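Lecture 7, part 2: worked example. A protein chain together with N-hydroxy-L-asparagine.
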Amino acid sequence: MKAPLLLGTWSFALKGIERALDPLRAGGDPLDACETICSTAERDETVDSVGYGGFPDASGAVTLDASVMRSPARNGSACCIRHHLDATRIARLVMEETPHMMLVGHPTDALAMAHGLPESDLLAPSARRAWLQWQRDPGSVKQAPDTSFRPHDGGPEAAGPLFTGGPSSTGDEGDPEDRWRHHDTIGALAMAPDGEMAGACSTSGLPFKRPGRVGDSPIIGHGLYVEPGVGMAVATGEGEFIMGVCGTFAAIELMRGGATPLEAARVVLERVDATFAPTKDHQVGIITCSADGTHACAALRDGFRAVVGDSDGVRAVEPDLILHPGT
Ligand code: SD4
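Predicted complex, written out as structure tokens:
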């Protein structure tokens, strides 16, 4: 058993994993660890894809989606949250405080208010500026609503300026096109020393998406799946592609059938490839982990990273597999 273990999507998971590892080591709940990782990004304006600072939809409204999972029987999700940044917490409230597994729209904010979570304006000035620029000149970001974009990880050292949608502390706003490419979802997987697993996923979805659009992240079996005794998986990138192949559920089923985490990740990406014929503008990344703590990270193309926290410390890692290297 290689636990305790924490895994996160993209370099911006580093800060949260650093905060979550010691408590997990000390016997903490793996879902608490995942919540710490996601909420660290939700509260960081420089992460332009999760919580506060997330890019809005085409109408200028930020809507958040999140999910949490301990097992097929214990999971929860929330879609289209508008007034609370604690998206992962709200998904957990759905799991722990309601008899349901998913809430959508205004009732997610009502649930948050009923449990005393603070309301907040989710549209950060930096994200508003980005939306205004996109409205003025959609071509400048090479994207339109409902079309694709490609996130690209600049590495942990780049997590500040490169993920920033507004002025950095140095006043350098960076290349705007770079910023669009760094739009990602935070996904976290945790394994406690006794092997107990949990996962969570939080996003503001695709930038400038059609209002009402929901991607893979808050849908169990699409962006996140955890099955005790078998494994866990979390995905990021072009949500529609992950949804079309039930990406994380497929990975778990493959591992149940004897595939290693790396083989499972490869087959899921091959299915995405065969189903959607993605172009160079599309990225999908996936992290898979079996019940013994063996894990893998894979992506369609270059530019994806994962973060691993274990007995060797916390570090950003390159994918074990890139289906189309050099693209
Ligand atoms: C979504 N999968 O809403 C999310 C977005 C994402 O890197 O992960 N972007 O489709």
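Residues 151, 183-185, 203, 205-206, 215-217, 223, 236-237, 239 surround N-hydroxy-L-asparagine (CB under 6 Å). The domain at 5-322 is CATH 3.60.20.30 (Glutamine Phosphoribosylpyrophosphate, subunit 1, domain 1). Keep this in mind for problem set question 3.
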